[in-house]
Specification:
The complex is a heterodimer. Chain A has 5 helices and 4 strands; from the N terminus they run ααβαβαβαβ. Chain A has helices at residues 2-41, 63-87, 101-116, 134-154, 179-185; strands spanning 90-91, 122-127, 162-168, 187-192. A 4-stranded mixed sheet of chain A has the order 1-4-2-3. By secondary structure, chain B is mostly beta strands. Chain B folds into 2 domains: 2-167, Rossmann fold (3-Layer(aba) Sandwich); 176-433, TolB, C-terminal domain (Neuraminidase, 6 Propeller), CATH 2.120.10.30. Chain B has helices at residues 2-13, 54-74, 102-105, 151-167; strands at 15-18, 40-43, 77-79, 111-120, 123-132, 137-147, 176-181, 188-193, 200-201, 209-214, 220-225, 232-237, 243-246, 252-257, 263-268, 275-280, 285-288, 296-301, 307-312, 319-324, 330-332, 340-345, 351-358, 361-368, 375-376, 384-389, 395-400, 407-412, 419-422, 428-433. Chain B has a 6-stranded mixed sheet with strand order 1-6-5-4-2-3. A 4-stranded antiparallel sheet of chain B has the order 9-8-7-30, with no helix packed on it. The two termini of chain B are 29 Å apart. Classes of the chains: A alpha+beta, B mainly beta. Chain A binds chain B through residues 95, 131-136, 138-139, 142-143, 164-167, 170, and chain B through 187, 208, 210-211, 224, 229-231, 250-251, 253-254, 267, 269, 274, 295, 297-298, 311, 313, 317-318, 338-339, 341-342, 355, 357, 360, 362, 385-386, 429-430.
């Protein structure tokens, strides 16, 4: 009886130890492969990786991590492109839905990125600053979103990829009450669907 | 439901026991068209009661204070200070033979309201009279039998009698105001009584909700809400909350009911243009009202339903236009300033209130519907937006940021007596006054 308890205890200690060692070994191997692959190619250093790494493969096969890595690079590039699409807003002048030269430049960048990722659909949100009145601003926000959409369609992108929605002055980016805040709020904001 | 029951009970119970001059009411007391309105000095002493017990005395005081408050709200009266009264309120007996009028003219009163309140068998017996102290005559006398919880309704009813006698108009006492408040974390619609009391939350959409609009009979409220993620139009029955939804592509905003009809105008953009359409009360399209290729919002109807004012940016800046529905003829009525929006057609039909931006802030203006004589009513007090007329045309409710956060304010149609109507958590905006019993169209 006593003997068997000791055996069980010993196993409890040894098995996790083995598992631990095994997973350590795997990590090292994967890291080595990645280094080997990246160095000769002189690939641009990827941005600091986001805190969600790909899950470690269960079965150790040498070529597979390489393949995942290539996909991951593309995925990361796409993620960065989508982030840029959403982070960079198109700005408008006061009480205007006309596209300024600066706004057109931003839209051209977005068009290039959307041309590359043809599977992506976008909702364009139109927003206004707080100075106008709610009713008129809701209409103005829609005209801003539609201006941006029309420009992208004119650049050759499919209309079916775009939806628009106006929030008027209901969702300011900056809740300040000065021109600096207002300028940030007069915007078309892109959201990847 | 309870309101309806009450009206039936009260209608059955109240007896107009004196009918002196009131059959040919004296509208000459207050000319509501005069911008130089002189406030009539009125005395409202504490009402009498036979019961000496504390609750009767307290209720009499409460009733007289309530009546004072309602009369004061109209802006027609100068409420005289009770401390200046010569007569001992405990000894005031109602009825002409019992009143020594010189004691009231001596303190400056031209009108006097006396009241007598008794609690009998768990119910109220209230006798209220209005006197002309100079002519030494009774103008109105009413007796009401009502439930213990119906005091406020009795006082509202008698206030309505007084205003009807003096102005020929039913006043505002049975009207309500719908408005938007952000207190719950989302903009939702709330409803309160004419004076900001009895606030209740009407929508619980948990989504941006905007632009409430009352039907003429106060049975329906239309509004825009992002319940489904985009600005759609909802038409909701006030009592049973049954509803219709207009959820076309684009924006579905700024509803305005056609006076006396189950139809409304609203801006829809499904065609690609932001046009105003005429819709049935169930949300079916009747026809497009404004011409293609423009951006038009915020319709408001003349009381006869023959004309519609709205905002259009067809000239390059938002300005107010009036369209004749039968002929389709459109005229621009605002030319001063670069941002004139939120028109509200007065119930008498002669004027349109709107908000105009000037010097960086919005203010309330009133202009003839023909574009003549614009008058600025607010100034140097933050942004003032969203004017809406009281059903009798004597007052305008609006939102103002003069205290910091946006709040609901009220003023006379001439811009005097500006005061805050209510303050609850969050910010309040877009007030809309219901027609109450003034829903009969000319």
């Amino acid at each position: 009886m006593k003997k068997s308890i000791w055996i069980v205890l010993a196993l409890l200690l040894v098995i996790p130890g083995l598992l631990f060692t095994a997973s350590c070994g795997k990590k090292t191997l994967k890291a080595d492969i990645e280094t080997m692959k990246e160095k000769p190619k002189e690939a641009p250093a990827p941005p600091p990786p986001p805190p969600a790494p790909a899950p470690a493969p269960v079965i150790q096969k040498v070529p597979e991590p390489v393949k995942i890595s290539a996909e991951e690079i593309r995925a990361r590039e796409k993620a960065a492109a989508m982030k840029a699409l959403m982070n960079e807003d198109v700005y408008f002048d006061y009480d205007s839905a006309a596209l300024t030269p600066a706004a057109q430049e931003v839209l051209k960048k977005k068009a290039a990125s959307l041309g590359k990722y043809s599977e992506v659909s976008i909702t364009i949100e139109g927003h206004c600053d707080e100075r106008g009145t709610n009713e008129y601003n809701l209409a103005l926000g829609e005209r801003r979103a539609e201006s941006a959409k029309t420009f992208l369609i004119d650049l050759g992108l499919a209309a079916s990829r775009f939806a628009t929605i106006s929030y008027g002055e209901e969702k300011p980016f900056d809740t300040g009450n000065d021109e600096e805040a207002w300028a940030k709020n007069r915007r078309a904001h892109f959201v990847v669907k | 439901m309870t309101v309806f029951r009450y009206i039936v009970v009260l209608a059955a119970a109240y007896i107009s026991f004196v009918l002196p001059a009131s059959s040919f009411a004296g509208y000459d007391y207050i000319d509501i068209n005069s911008p130089f309105l002189r406030k009539i000095p009125i005395a409202v002493p504490v009402f009498g009661t036979d019961n000496a017990d504390n609750s009767s005395v307290q209720l009499s005081k409460k009733a007289s204070d309530m009546l004072s408050g309602m009369l004061d709200f109209t802006g027609y009266f100068k409420m005289l200070d009770r401390d200046s009264f010569i007569e001992d309120p405990a000894k005031i007996k109602s009825g002409v033979p019992n009143i020594y009028f010189p004691n009231w003219t001596a303190v400056g009163a031209e009108l006097l309201v006396t009241g007598d309140l008794q609690i009998k068998g768990g119910a109220l017996e209230i006798e209220l009279r209005l006197f002309d102290t100079i002519k030494a005559s009774q103008l109105i006398g009413k007796k009401y039998n009502a439930g213990m919880n119906d005091l406020r309704d009795v006082i509202k009813r008698f206030s309505g009698e007084i205003i009807f006698y003096l102005t020929g108009n039913r006043g505002v006492f049975d009207s309500q105001i719908a408005f938007v408040s952000s207190g719950s974390g989302n903009k939702e619609i709330y409803i309160c009584e004419f004076d900001g009391s009895n606030i209740s939350q009407f929508t619980r959409n948990k989504a941006i909700t905007l632009f409430p609009a009352w039907s003429s009979d106060s049975q329906w409220i239309a509004f825009t809400s992002y319940i489904r993620g985009k600005p759609d139009l909802y038409i909701v029955n006030v009592r049973d909350k049954s509803m219709s939804v207009i959820a076309k592509k684009g924006i579905n905003i700024t509803p305005a009911w056609v006076p006396g009809k189950f139809e409304l105008a609203a801006t829809l953009s499904y065609s690609g243009d932001q046009n105003i359409y005429l819709l049935t009360g169930t949300g079916k399209e009747i026809k497009r009202l404004t011409k293609e290729g423009e951006s038009d919002v915020s319709p408001t109807w003349s009381p006869d339903g023959k004309k519609m004012a709205f905002v259009s940016s067809r000239s390059g800046t938002p300005q107010i236009y009036v369209q004749d529905i039968a002929t389709g003829r459109v005229e621009r009525i605002t030319f001063y300033g670069r941002y004139n929006t939120q028109p509200s057609w007065s119930p008498k039909g002669d004027k349109i209130a709107y908000s105009g931006m000037n010097g960086g802030s919005h203010n309330i203006y009133v202009i003839g519907f023909d574009g003549k004589d614009p008058v600025q009513l607010t100034g140097n007090a933050g942004d003032n937006e969203s004017p809406s007329w009281s059903p009798d045309g004597s007052l305008i409710v609006f939102s103002s940021t003069r205290e910091g956060p946006s709040r609901i304010f009220v003023m006379t149609a001439f811009g005097t007596d500006q005061r805050r109507l209510l303050a609850i958590s969050g910010e309040q905006s877009s007030p809309k006054w219901s027609l109450g019993s003034n829903n009969k169209q000319p």
